[in-house]
Amino acid sequence: MITLKRLEENADDFYGHPQKIYPPTSMPTSVCESLAQIKKEDWASMVQVVFGSHSNPDKVTIADVLRVVKQTDRASSADFPTEVFIDPDGDCTLMVYSDEAQKEAT
Which listed residue, 40, 46, 87, 98, has the most CB atoms within 10 A of its CB? Predict the structure, then answer.
């Protein structure tokens, strides 16, 4: 496990922008881009785990989840791709890839 600070140093835009509209991709290069790829039913499950069973998934935004990711402050590796922990228990995670890996895949 590592803190996200190490990853911030290795990526130009590790967190991304919560207000941005991201196109579909199988290799997201930022936390926000990865969050934007989550399917509606998976989003609902993640919201229930992270924010509690009484939370409305339609009211929880990418910015809300990003705040939790930053508070959790954990990832599996300082190298890309890496698994970023959304919640402290690691029940919900997401993958972030390097810009280079995404370019090679296209």
Answer: 46
Q: How far apart are CA 24 and CA 91, in angstroms?
A: 24
Q: How many CA atoms lie within 13 A of 58 on its CB side?
A: 0
Is the pLDDT confidence value at 5 over 80?
A: no
What 3-state class would DSSP assign to 52? Answer: coil
* Amino acid at residue number 98: S
Peptide bond into 81 cis (omega under 30): yes
E-strand stretches of 34-92? 82-85
What's this model's pTM, rounded to 2 decimal places? 0.89
Rg of the chain, C-alpha, whole Å:
13
